[in-house]
Design brief:
By secondary structure, this protein is mostly beta strands. The protein contains no helices and 15 strands.
Length: 190
């Protein structure tokens, strides 16, 4: 029998067979397959040390993790009755490494992928300060980093941003020139 419109997503069909005399059989039931894909994983968080991943998804589904971007599932984790999942990551993921998570329900439907990026734990490179007569201070740092200039007593002189090439400079205002012999330090935050 052709069903039009088609049944789907757990809709029930009941079949009764009648013989030539009109006697009915007992009912037989079947559920149409579930073709609805689950929602993508949500609230994905990689721990600050990169050693675990937590997330949420439809209860009773399975979270499949691709840890290295090759499109192959590296780890599968059940989603509990509250819709939560957690798993250790070994070795830990760091420095922006990406995890792709796909959710699969009991009938094999896959969600769209969701992503989580590991925290960047690599400190920026040590900045440089060019020799200067104090009218202008310049140097290099990581591209787009924030450079904090301090004096010998750790008082902040200025905060400047390095450009896309990692170059930065600071010109003190004429109303507050740098004193002769001042020792300056530059610290970078990425």
């Amino acid at each position: 029998a052709t069903l039009n419109p088609p049944l789907s997503n757990g809709e029930n069909i009941t079949v009764i067979v009648r013989d030539g005399a009109g006697n009915p059989s007992g009912p037989a039931s079947n559920l149409a397959p579930d073709t609805t894909m689950p929602a993508p994983a949500g609230n994905l968080v990689i721990a600050p040390d990169g050693a675990s991943l937590t997330g949420t998804a439809e209860p009773g589904t399975t979270a499949h993790l691709d840890l290295d971007g090759d499109g192959i599932i590296d780890l599968s984790v059940p989603v509990d009755a509250n819709g939560d999942f957690t798993t250790p990551l070994s070795p830990p993921l760091t420095n922006g490494e990406r995890v792709t998570v796909t959710i699969t329900d009991a009938t094999g439907n896959d969600s769209d992928p969701a992503h989580a990026d590991a925290p960047d734990t690599t400190p920026p490179a040590t900045p440089t300060i060019a020799p200067s007569d104090g009218t202008s201070i310049s140097g290099t740092a990581d591209a787009d980093a924030t450079v904090v200039l301090t004096d010998a007593s750790n008082t902040v002189i200025a905060t400047v941003d390095a450009d896309g090439a990692g170059l930065w400079s600071y010109t003190p205002p004429s109303s507050a020139p740098l004193s002769n012999g001042i020792v300056g330090t530059a610290t970078v935050t990425d």
